[in-house]
Amino acid sequence: MSANSIFAFDVYGTLFNIKSVDTTCEKYFPGRGESIGQLWRQKQIQYSFLRQAMGKYVPFSSVTRDALRFSLAAYHLEWTADTEQTLMEAYNHLSLYEESLYVLQKLKDQSATLIVFSNGSRDMLEPLLEQAGLNDYLDHVISVDDIKQFKPSPASYQLILEAVGAPRHEVTFLSSNGWDISGAKAFGFTTAWINRSEQPIEELQLPPDYQYTTLTPLTQE
Amino acid sequence: MSANSIFAFDVYGTLFNIKSVDTTCEKYFPGRGESIGQLWRQKQIQYSFLRQAMGKYVPFSSVTRDALRFSLAAYHLEWTADTEQTLMEAYNHLSLYEESLYVLQKLKDQSATLIVFSNGSRDMLEPLLEQAGLNDYLDHVISVDDIKQFKPSPASYQLILEAVGAPRHEVTFLSSNGWDISGAKAFGFTTAWINRSEQPIEELQLPPDYQYTTLTPLTQE
Predict the structure, then answer these.
(1) Which one of B92, B117, B140 terminates a domain?
(2) Are residues A12 and A46 in the same domain?
(3) Which of A99, B24, B80, B165 is 20 to 30 Å from the Cα of A211, by its Cα?
(4) B80-103 burial, b for 16+ CB within 10 Å, e for fewer?
């Protein structure tokens, strides 16, 4: 690991466990927590792709709320404004994966440049990073909201280059989302897919350069 | 219904039942046909969105094959090149929904302009329309392949305007896919969502102008 290493981490599903919201969903809709959480995440991602393709950007906090509303309606549930707000706030209190903090610390000790790069708007990202105590380790917090184009658009990944001023292949991009890895690879980053649920590689002819099941191997190279 | 009416129909899921492929999947992978068919369709759509966002277009026949490969791998299945080819060919023999032909005939009798507009590349669309005997009713067969941008990009819907030379709101756009209706609405078409599986409206702030459970009400206005 050289002192010039640059690591760009995706946030949702990569550093933080998005399944944390299932517990809050379960509290309000017993027996349905996991199904709602899963559909919520699926629609959240789909809406970001659709808005990118339509050229109809709105901040990820709005996308996340829209996806929640669709998911609850799809299960024929009724809910109050208070419940909706509590579910939305669950996104500000996601749990870190158990190795995330250690890996960031270790890489920082080795003088790596550490970036988080997310579809999340700052109203979502900032409270999340703050409560998890990550800010001390991060050189850059980059949101696609600065350019109003979601991943996997090339313009979104370009934001990382503008922050670090390095050639693309020197950036190691880490995500648990196979589609995000494909987008980053298409852009020209070195990619490491954190394949936490042992999925097949996306059939997009853009395979990852490295594949791990957790972030831990990053500290062992 | 005026003689100037213009109807643009989506193909997969709107005129043709994409669940037709489940039977072929079931033949090769007993007990898994429906699950494979569902994941195959979901990945097919997702890959078209991703390629649109990444700017990495390939024809829909390639997207469809890639989505099939991912789906079979996700279920830890093994398959031969022959099986893959047979499954792919199932897309050229989808069943029409029971009302599709009658509705097209009826609208044609009323001198409407009838268009099919699809993400499908011509190597998929032409055999499908031919075997179903639809060509006699259609004034235009439009594929996004002509511009190499998938729906729901504005550039894709623009192809319809170029074919008919009419203002956007005079085109009635029909699709069973909520996301396609949102894209068409964002573009400025009059939209009718053929909500066959009684899903909630997509939370994209682009609701359909009309909503039906089949195409039949089009002949009753």
Answers:
(1) B92
(2) no
(3) B80
(4) eeebeeebbebbbebebbebbeeb
